[in-house]
Amino acid sequence: MSKELKESITVSPFFLFFLIHGTQTGVGLLGFQTKLFSGAGQDAWVSVLLVGVAFHVIGVLMYFLLKHAKNGDIISLHKELYGRWMGNILNLLLYCYCIVIVSIVIRSYLEVLMTWVFPSTPLWILSFILLLVIVNIVKGGFRVITGICFWGVILPSFLFFSLYYLIQYAHWSNLLPLFNHGIHDYFVSAKESMLSFLGPEFLLIYYPYIKNNMKSQKWFHFAVGYTTLVYVLVTLFTFVYFSHGQLLHTVWPTLIMSKIIRLPFIERFEYVYIFTWVLVFLPTCCIAVWGGVRVLKESIGIKPNITLWVSIILIEMIVTLCKDTIDVNRVESITIIFSSIFLFIYLPVLSIWVFIKNKLKKTNKEIET
């Protein structure tokens, strides 16, 4: 049965839209198109659409599980189903997942920042500054993080109007021929887009902090639908702007496209993209760090302040150990595999288990009566 906390630390269901969409859009939006194209080519937008639909299904499974969790989160569900020790081991794996997600997001953004703006600044200094910002936000609590998610969705959304400038340079024939790829090609593109869609799974941790949480499911689907629309539109605009050969050799297509924008008071509009994108990736980092802290608090009972600083140290170590793009890509590949197993294998199996368990419990009660 789901659980809600006191009203002073919870947020309205409406804000779930910003919590979900804010964690789904991040640094990947600046350059995910190149990896997508390596699979289904000009048809890769179909894979993006299918991944978006898959996350709607995952959302239904998550709400089913949370409905039957004792405290309304996966932390208590693990303990209930597996016992204290095994449940805590699974919760520790969930904590590690949160830490890795934050590390990847920060390292990917710093790759952009160091290439375009601060090429001579040491990696550890930039990451340390960003982590201090994250610490201050997380210390403010869940409602402050929700506020960051709100502005992290609203302010950068104005940048999408810049896509209007691309229409005059569009070559719509780049999208032809349609649907001429095999299932394996679509699968490759879907796998490459997975990392960009990650974020809704953190609902399994912060669900009790949503008021009337059982009625919030529509906002989850609105958010995933909006995210899917954004990714499909950006993918299509990228494909009609770049030729096939250009796209294969372009690292950050979204940034490159922003360079065509010329305003009387801004010479390098791509810098606006880069610095505004801090607000885009902060929601994911804050939610993940906060979620990791809560997992350890509820599982092992470690004080949040201690867990927070331990988490920051671990993230700083991982970020600085990723020396180049090859290291980042390697960690991303591992994360995609782990998250795919968690979302598309573990959650469905867990849902079936919970369903069978509840049916057996209901049958036993009927027999006893």
How would you characterize the overall build of this protein?
This protein has a single domain (7-349), classed as Amino acid/polyamine transporter I (Up-down Bundle), CATH 1.20.1740. The chain is globular. The chain is built from 15 helices and no strands. It is mainly α. The mean pLDDT is 89. The two termini are 22 Å apart. It has helices spanning 16-24, 32-40, 44-67, 74-82, 84-116, 123-139, 142-157, 183-197, 203-206, 217-241, 244-248, 253-258, 269-299, 304-321, 325-368.
What is the structure about, briefly put?
This protein is mainly α.
End-to-end Cα distance, whole Å, is 22 Å
Number of domains: 1
Give the helices and strands as they follow along the chain.
HHHHHHHHHHHHHHH
Tell me the β content: under 5%
Provide the CATH superfamily. Answer: Amino acid/polyamine transporter I
The largest pleated sheet is described as: none
Mean pLDDT: 89
CATH architecture: Up-down Bundle
The top-level CATH class is: Mainly Alpha
Radius of gyration: 21 Å
